[in-house]
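In this section we walk through a basic example: taking a raw amino acid sequence and producing a predicted 3D structure, encoded as discrete structure tokens. The instruction is simple. Fold the sequence below.
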Amino acid sequence: MPFWKKENPTGTKPNKAKTIMINLDKIQHVAVLGAAGKMGSGILYLNTLYLSQLALKPENCNRTFTIYAIDQSHERLQALMLYIKSLLQKWAEKNIIALRALFAERDDLIENREVIQAFIEAALALIVPSTRLESAYDATLIFEAVIENIEVKTALFSKIKENNPLNPWFLSNTSSIPIDELNKKARLDGNIIGCHFYNPPAVQKLIEVIELKDGNKQLSEYVYQFGKELGKIMVPANDIAGFIGNGFFMRDLLFGIEKLKQFKNKFSFSESVLLVDTLTRDFMLRPMGIFQLMDYVGIDVCSFILKVMNNYLSENLHSELLISLMEKHVKGGQNADGSQKPGFFTYQKGRIETVYNFDKSMYEPIEQLLPKVQEYLGGLPENQSWRSISRNKEKSELLSGFFRKMTQSNTAGCQLGMEYMRQMKTIGKNLVTQGVTNSDEHVNTVMITGFHHLYGPINEYC
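The resulting token sequence is shown next.
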């Protein structure tokens, strides 16, 4: 077992792919584009863990391993190195026994702190921070984690392909753009694969893998081996815009937005937002309501992903509301310190504090809105929450009991919750019938592992 592999907290088993012999010449020089970003920094950390294991093996003592961390700002790269060091420190402190085995031949390392320091220094020595794209011309493996824009991505790929004599492999973290489009536009000759990490990559177990039909099979084998060594859960998706995760999430949020219209005659805009958010969180036992999740991802990001998917799919995936919110500078997303920017809600220490009223262009205190919303929805079928059930060993039985009582209740919240769940089941099933994925299980795994839902949308509860 790799020395960093941990027990999988989700209960879903990682892929039991067979161990494959990978040509080290092809993977010992890695570049991460967008390395200082939210996704890129996690991808850099995972590569550092992966390559440090290989570099510290005695049989590889004469090999040089390099990870080019490429981004636009020296300041961001300096902060990145401190961030990576802190992650390595935390990991090393939790894995001291494994590290001692790794450094067994180092008689000079006596104290635990000496072993930890040796590991951190060896791992950090692999990283070469750079603001120059030219650094990627010396890499054989390119991880891309830049802005979700096909023109930006393909321009970078094309320039590297043109100037890199090593015929590198490309791994894109795109969450929505078809890989075949990137391949054709950048003329990569099939040497590209979709490797969609979930945020934050250092913690999230899920990776969606999108292969080209006639792509590089060795590259595919490497990706699955990479994920296996890191204890990741690898889910294959077909090369259709949005793939599984955003294929589901974008349709989920559009349905949530559509539900707002249902309440416009009875409730204000802010009351309707709070109502649907409460419904999708509390009655569906999710960690976040649909509008809080949009804030977390970013209203602007959601709108952009919809636009990308709309370019490639025949159905109308579009929201005038999201566009109008951005025109009012209501964008959501996160600050550099991880705190939430104003979106549908404002937050205080992670808790919803106010709700945006589109018609008045102002935020209203949640305390003023909540009584009317709660009175309309009625009580939950049982006193349970996502948090209480997620920590319980009897999770399956608790979910069955909760939703069984929900189907028997006549309250507005329970009836709307079941209606919403039936629509989510339809969305999940459609991803299979439309060829986005080949199985119901893949849909459920993505939503449980990537979105931390307690259950998959394709279920027997509704």
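Looking at the output, two observations stand out. Residues 1-19 have pLDDT under 50 and may be disordered. The chain has 18 helices and eleven strands. In the next section we compare this with other chains.
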